[in-house]
Each structure stands twice: as C-alpha cells, then as structure tokens.
C-alpha cells in the first residue's frame, strides 16, 4: 500500500469528521506548524512511519500522530534541584489530573493516574481519575507497593562486598533521590 492508497482509505472511511465539528476551528496543538496535505509525505520520509503507513488505516493514523506532534527544541531532562523538581511535579500532576478528568468526561472510559514512590518511610501513593477505578486501586495499595518494591529490588544491581579496611561515607540522598 502506498501513500496515495492510504489517503484514499482515509477519504473512503470518512475519518475526517463532520463539517460542523466544534473542534475544527481550533487546532489541537496551538503553534504546531504542519500542513495536512504534506503529512503523509513527511511520514514517508521516516522509516518507522513509512512502515506504519504501509500497515493500513490504523498505521496511517499512528504515523500522522507521530509526524504532527510538536518537536521540542530541548528534550526533557531530570531536574536535580529539589525545589524546582517539586514545583514541576506539582504542575505536571495538576495537568495530568485535568487531562484524566477531561478524558473520562469526553470518552466515558475508566482512567486513572497512579503515582508511587516506594522506599521512603511513608510510601507516596497517589491515585486520581474515574472514581470506581480510583477506589479499586486505593484498596490495592499494599499489594501494588509490595509488587513495585519486589520489581525494583530485582532490577537493583547486586551489593558489592565491602572492604573492611576502607572507610565509606553514607550515600547522599536528597528528597529520596540518591
């Protein structure tokens, strides 16, 4: 299947939406600069998206999502400053909460966000989203935290035998991050 056949499939299946859609006036990501007609051509330039386009209608949709997503000038990186990291955490959790509630309202599916930080004296376990699923996960907290601790312990590097002739300083841990 080439890109022309893929575009024909999209036109035949009427996946473009109705003409009186409320969302047609507002782009999904303001400031993104892509041309709908050029989308498949851009997708065909990338090896992965070209394979997706060849897979059919679902692949075309996936390739369109990949090529139309806004590329960042600077990729995200871990913040080492604890106060800035906490501020980013709060801001991103607020955005996630809003997005999950919007998703549950618009789509009508059960969706939650689970944030867990094991290893601290008071394990952090936050769940928010659709109420029935949120309650189920809150009731499963001990099981989830135990399984998470086991999975993290399995991935941890093995302990190195200590040399008794050497002095070792305790590890520096700031806000749970070594």
From TrEMBL:
Biological processes annotated in GO: regulation of transcription by RNA polymerase II
Annotated InterPro entries: NRF1/Ewg, Nrf1_NLS/DNA-bd_dimer
Keyword annotations of the record: DNA-binding, Nucleus, Transcription, Transcription regulation
Any single Gene Ontology cellular-component annotation: nucleus
UniProt domain Nuclear respiratory factor 1 NLS/DNA-binding dimerisation: residue ranges: 56-178
Region (Disordered): 1-37
Main localization, broad class: nucleus
A Pfam family that the UniProt record links to this protein: Nrf1_DNA-bind
Record has Flavoprotein as a keyword: no
Protein localization: Nucleus
Any coiled-coil regions, as ranges: none
A GO term, aspect molecular function: DNA-binding transcription factor activity
PANTHER family given in the database record: NUCLEAR RESPIRATORY FACTOR 1 (PTHR20338)
Protein family membership: Belongs to the NRF1/Ewg family.
Protein name per the record: DNA-binding protein P3A2
Native source organism of the sequence: Culex pipiens (House mosquito)
